[in-house]
Amino acid sequence: YLAFLVLACLVCGYLTRRYFDRRMTLATDMRKGMRNGEFHLVYQPLVELGTGAFSGVEALLRWNHPSAGPIRPDLFIPVAEENGLIVELTRHVFALAAADLRTLGLPPHAHLGLNVCAQHMARTDFVDDVEALLRRIEGLGPITLVLEVTERAALPDSEVVRANMRRLRERGVQWAIDDFGTGHSSLAYIEQLEADFLKIDRAFVNSVGTDAVSAVVLETIITLARKLDLRMVAEGVETARQSAFLRAHGVQFGQGYYYGRPMRARDLGAWRQAFVLD
Ligand code: C2E
Ligand code: CA
Ligand code: CA
Ligand code: CA
Complex ipTM, two decimals? Predict the structure, then answer.
């Protein structure tokens, strides 16, 4: 029995150590990766559903690890959030976006969407980081910066967060609640954030024409957003049927493979030339 206990402890210890070692390695590799230019951004177009007009892009981070190959953001963003590296990583994203601006060639009043996290928003230097980016955007014409905050992680209800948001709003920044419907604090979030956009999570968009319960949730979200006078972006639109449903229900913007995949900045011009919404 004792031998079994000792063995169990050893196995447990080994597994936790491996788990934490991997996370440590990932953090070290991320730092190195930022220095060595292993990260780049891809941009996914947003389309105005009523007119089919291009309305802007969301920037999404990509990491090409030198030995492991491409690593999905779903894997490394949570690790970066855990060990605080997310702040450095987001600054890196801001710098990459600024460097891509000229190549992107966004038209006047287009939206540039970037993902930010609660941890960063609660820091006093958050505004400085965003303002550094704004100064570079302003050199290229009137482009609206839209910061996306996921509602999965709770945003601290702090004076710093409120002050930061207020200051950036005064500078013309707009706010979007990301992954709406998947968190637990949806309504509190809307109040706290005074958001401009709700991004409807693709789980609900996928339900169009299939899952009856989620479809009811989708219609409820749409009704709610309308009553609160929030503009909506439907995420993960993959089919003509979903697109038509969303447009018919008054959702203003769509984003998803049906319109365009995330792409390198240099490919956006060709996409815009070719895009027609049927
Ligand atoms: P998100 O912000 O909800 O981004 C949308 C995700 O859905 C992206 O995955 C995008 O590639 C994917 N997507 C877009 N259209 C479709 C579609 O039609 N069908 C399907 N199945 N998927 C679609 P991605 O790029 O893998 O990013 C995953 C998540 O990682 C993002 O979810 C976001 O939460 C996080 N993330 C990505 N880049 C950044 C970043 O720069 N900073 C931070 N903080 N988080 C990021
Ligand atoms: Ca997002
Ligand atoms: Ca989302
Ligand atoms: Ca998501």
Answer: 0.96
